[in-house]
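During the no-cost extension, the postdoctoral fellow (Dr. R.K.) reprocessed legacy sequence entries with the updated structure-token encoder. One reprocessed record is reproduced below for audit purposes.
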Amino acid sequence: MQPGDMGWVVSRQTVLYTQEYGWNGEFEALAADIASRFIREFDPARERGWIAEMDGQIVGSVFLVKTDTPGTAKLRMLYVEAAARGHGIGSRLVDECLAFARQAGYQRITLWTNSVLADARRLYERAGFQLIEEKPHHSFGHDLIGQVWAREC
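Re-encoded structure tokens follow.
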């Protein structure tokens, strides 16, 4: 990762979710908070971020962060640009998270997403994640169904 990558990720993911799902600025605040925390509290032995590029352009990202629960990591901010979908980038990003989690000694990975993010949910299912919790909430200007997914490493 290079300086400026996190700002790019926050911006692009916010624009993408605004265009595709009509989400408001609340999502940008959440994404910026996640990015800021990643930069400020980065633990290179336990955390990692990946930026996917195609033809010299950033087309996606994902982050794996430690949690307060021993042995458990959290997958954060997976996204792939619409024009880059169908090239296996999302699967590769998730696979990188899984490989690093095993190497770092994690036993479990969790993630939080929303039911409307169907493409991401399919990636998680193919990677062996299982839905463990659903809860309705109002965020980003919409009524949504939040989901927690998990898998063993």
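The chain has a mean pLDDT of 96. Residues 5-21 form the longest helix (17 residues). The remaining legacy entries will be reprocessed before the final report is submitted.
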